[in-house]
Please model this.
Amino acid sequence: MSHPPLPTTPTRILITAGPTHEPIDSVRFIGNRSSGRMGCALADEAARRGWSATLLLGPAPAFPTDSRVRVRRFRTCEDLRGLLREEFGKTDVLVMAAAVADYRPKVDPAMWNGKFRRHASNLTLELEPTPDLLAEVSSSRRTGQLLIGFALEPREELATSSLAKLERKGVDLVVGNPLETMDSPDIEATLFAKGGAQTPAPKMSKDAFAAWLMDRIVPKVHSPRSDAESAEGA
Ligand code: CTP
Model:
């Protein structure tokens, strides 16, 4: 007797986007120019395709237009780390498009409720390294999870540096793009895969690139899960 196919649930994608703001005191921070546009475009494109999309969004001007995208906000690298701990185990695909700070001010947290005052002398701000969140989550990945990183590089170092990051962070794909991409409506990216394969994309809008990238993610995603399997992974 043949059984009807098990019902399937949508593929789950978790996307991070935007900059982090690392506090110096209660009114100042170290940030960067990431607009969050690329991650928002990807979340919209995934939702349009019927995927279950969660966007972890930093303090950026962009916001997804599709109301089906579930949005959770972060400010600092540490906030994002906490959200990834909650969300990573529940996803099939992670796209780490956020421009996470590499260093943060090493200041007494008491200053987060206060303010540095002006003095005549120089002020030196000590910075400490932040954890590499992508490397951290990739070390706890489940079989079948697909991990995609972004790399922002000077053009002449794009290939060598993107491939090095792919290995170092233990991910499946890296979207390498030149420094000018940050805060721009367009992107001119190359997709790097394990084994060294390189697929250049023509320069296009971030919305168009979201569809281009999703077309290349789809064949790499494991076959749709049955409801029983998704309950296990939840
Ligand atoms: N990333 C991360 N945690 C950090 C810094 C970066 O998870 N503390 C992620 C980014 O979201 C991106 C990838 O790592 O997906 C590459 O980020 P990038 O800034 O290009 O590389 P870094 O590892 O920070 O190295 P460098 O700044 O020296 O190029």
Summary: The longest strand covers residues 146-153.
